[in-house]
Every structure is written in structure tokens, then in C-alpha cells.
Design brief:
Layout: H1 3-19, E1 32-37, E2 40-46, H2 55-63, E3 71-76, H3 90-96, E4 100-105, H4 115-122, E5 126-128, H5 133-139, H6 141-149, E6 153-160, E7 165-167, H7 179-190, E8 194-198, H8 199-205, E9 212-213, E10 219-220, E11 226-230, E12 251-255, H9 261-269, E13 273-276, E14 279-280, E15 283-284, H10 286-295, E16 300-303, H11 307-315, E17 321-326, E18 337-338, E19 355-362, E20 365-371
Parallel strand pairs: 3-4, 4-5, 6-16, 6-17, 8-11, 8-16, 11-12, 12-13
Antiparallel strand pairs: 1-2, 1-3, 7-18, 9-10, 14-15, 17-20, 19-20
């Protein structure tokens, strides 16, 4: 086995370990680490949640004295700054006695980027960068986007017919897609920091937007996304399902100054936080809302809106990825509801083309996913 093949093998294991932190490590990145000595794994770990030890620290603790002269594989460049809740990792890596560090990707955080690797080299360690870099960057695409833009990475999700409709003319949409697709969506929700809908969806469908599992999808998963409703005038019914179960799944309502202050007070007494955003043409400013969510540490956002909100988010350039569950059904008609509402572009050259597309079956449906 060549050195590159060996590096790829152990980095692949580190990436699988990092995946165990999906949904819990945020707003920190997912990181996995493996310590290898004489061809044997002597330590491994992954970052579980903010404030807890980083992956490389856990792997080195498990390795103990066996770390001396070993190789440390870590999916993200070790940190070297103190502006966080845990001590920097680089000094601990140096003290452990490892002789080589193999890194999947550079940390995009300006406080670290390149500095961690440089500090390790100054201490006399051999450093290899960019092993399985593409896989590591894809795993932490939400974190990378959040660091760069200070906004959450937005995935537009929709269940649609084969001809691109998400609801009939009357607004009926349950259920266009099949049970397996619905289960897949609940798994997706449980891995997101937050889900976003407009008040129109709440009024029409009265969704709970919780992440659920079990035979009948009636058991709340351990981790629930933050539920966010865009409602410029606070029309949301006080008995809406999305306002329930606040002890397990929190809800925030984004509104404007046009909303009734007494209505806001009523929601707050029920434990529902409201965010007052600037208004644009009487509607919640979506860029300002995403800026606020980013400040709160929301790195990933699942957009489950109707046509109107989907269209507004796309036209504002706020969607990074699309995941469409396509059912083998044709609705037809000019009055059905499409995935993206509003005016269509005048020319094909103005259409959005998905990059890096993935297509897979999901029960009787097909999932089409890609970057915007």
C-alpha cells in the first residue's frame, strides 16, 4: 500500500467519524480524527458539540503514550486561536509527540486558515494537506458558507409532481410524494439547525415542522430544528401546530413593525420569540432575517416554503442548494402551484442551472439535488 493509499484510507475513517457530529456540532464544524502507529489505530474521536473537546484532542487522549511518533489524521486543520470555549488544539498536538499530521481541509475561519498547519510545521512536525479535501469540504459546506457570508446555508426542499407542481389549484399538497420520501425529509430536518416557512404555509397546511421517526412518524427525534415563520403582520393563529411543543422544538416568528404590538406580547407570553425585521414592500426583509439567524449561530437552514417564499428566496440569491422529491404524478393545468412562484425569467439564459447534481430513487419517487 502506498503512502497516498494509506492516507486516503485513514482519512476516509476520520470523515465517517466526523459525520457522527452532524446536527450536534453546529455552529462548529464536524471534525473526525484518527491516530495511527505502525499500521494500527491507537486513538480516534469526533467533535460532538460546542464547548466539548475537539476531535483531535479526544483521539490523542485515547492514544495516550502511543501517540509518540504516530500519525494524526484529522479532517479539518487544527485550531490555534483562543477566541472560543476550548483551548487551541495545536499545542496539544505538539505535546502529544506525533511526528506527522495529515489534514483533510484548511479551516476557512480567518483565525485559523493556514496558521494551524504553519504552527505545526514550525514545531517540527511533518504536515500533509488536502487529503480527501473535496469530501471534507462537502461535509462542512454549511460551516464554510456561514464563515464566509455570516448567513446560514439554505437548502430549498420541495415535494413535487413530475411536471413541477407542489400543490393543486385549491392548495392541496398532502401527499404528492410517498412515505419513504416523507421519512427522508424528517431525517433531513433532524440534521438542520432550522427550518423556514411563510405564514401562508401555516394557514394552509398547519404543519408542525418537527423532525419525527417511528412507524407512524409520531415520535420526536432527540434533536429538533429551530422553526421559523415569516409573518410580516403576525397573522399566525395562536393554535397553530408550529406554536406547540415549545419545550422540545422552539419557534421564532419573523415580522415587521407593521405587526400589532399586543399580538407580539401575546406570543411572547406563550414563549414564542418574535424578531422584528426591516420591511421591503411590506414584507420581511429576507437578507436581514438571514443575517440575524447567522448572528445566532444558525449555519444550516431548510426552506420548506410555498411558491411565494421559495421564489422570493431564490430571486434574492439566498438559496445555495435545492433538493426536490419528484413523484411520478402529473397535475397539469395553469392554476396549479409551482415550486418557485413569481414571474418567470424572460429568457432561458436567465434560468438557474443546478451544478454538481445528484439523482437517486426514494421509494416510488426520485430525489434530484444540486447546488444553485
Amino acid at each position: 500500500m502506498t503512502i497516498r493509499e494509506r492516507d486516503d484510507r485513514y482519512m476516509s475513517l476520520a470523515l465517517r467519524l466526523a459525520e457522527k457530529g452532524r446536527g450536534t456540532a453546529s455552529p462548529n464544524p464536524m471534525v473526525g480524527a484518527v491516530v495511527v502507529k505502525n499500521g494500527r489505530i491507537v486513538g480516534q474521536g469526533f467533535h460532538r458539540r460546542p464547548g466539548r473537546p475537539h476531535a483531535e484532542i479526544l483521539a490523542l487522549r485515547q492514544a495516550g503514550p502511543r501517540a509518540r511518533s504516530a500519525t494524526l489524521y484529522v479532517t479539518l486543520e487544527p485550531c490555534c486561536h483562543r477566541a472560543k470555549r476550548t483551548p487551541p488544539c495545536v499545542p496539544e498536538v505538539v505535546r502529544s509527540g506525533v511526528s506527522r499530521v495529515v489534514i483533510g481541509m484548511r479551516d476557512p475561519n480567518p483565525s485559523v486558515s493556514g496558521r494551524g498547519a504553519a504552527a505545526l510545521r514550525r514545531a517540527g512536525l511533518a504536515v500533509t494537506l488536502d487529503v480527501a479535501r473535496e469530501e471534507a469540504e462537502e461535509q462542512n459546506h454549511a460551516y464554510r458558507h456561514w464563515i464566509k457570508t455570516k448567513r446560514p446555508y439554505v437548502t430549498l426542499k420541495a415535494g413535487m409532481s413530475l411536471d413541477g407542481q407542489i400543490a393543486t389549484a385549491s392548495g392541496e399538497s398532502r401527499w404528492i410524494t410517498g412515505e419513504q420520501s416523507r421519512r427522508d425529509v424528517h431525517r433531513l430536518r433532524s440534521r438542520m439547525d432550522a427550518v423556514l416557512v411563510g405564514v401562508g404555509t401555516v394557514l394552509r397546511d398547519n404543519p408542525s415542522l418537527t423532525a419525527r421517526s417511528g412507524a407512524r412518524l409520531n415520535t420526536l427525534t432527540p434533536r429538533q430544528p429551530l422553526r421559523i415563520v415569516v409573518d410580516s403582520r403576525l397573522r399566525i393563529p395562536l393554535k397553530a401546530r408550529i406554536l406547540l411543543q415549545q419545550h422540545r422544538a422552539k419557534t421564532i416568528v419573523a415580522t415587521t413593525r407593521a405587526a400589532s404590538s399586543s399580538r407580539q406580547s401575546t406570543l411572547r407570553r406563550r414563549g414564542i420569540e418574535t424578531i422584528t425585521c426591516p420591511a421591503v414592500c411590506g414584507r420581511v426583509s429576507l437578507p436581514d432575517l438571514l443575517n440575524e439567524l447567522g448572528r445566532r449561530g444558525v449555519t444550516s437552514l431548510l426552506l420548506e416554503g410555498g411558491s411565494e417564499l421559495n421564489g422570493a428566496m431564490v430571486r434574492a440569491g439566498l438559496v445555495q442548494r435545492v433538493r426536490l422529491y419528484v413523484a411520478p404524478t402529473l397535475l397539469g393545468g395553469d392554476d396549479a402551484k409551482g415550486v418557485i412562484g413569481g414571474k418567470s425569467p424572460a429568457r432561458l439564459a436567465q434560468a438557474l442551472t443546478l451544478r454538481r447534481r445528484w439523482i437517486r430513487p426514494c421509494g416510488g419517487d426520485i430525489v434530484v439535488e444540486g447546488d444553485v
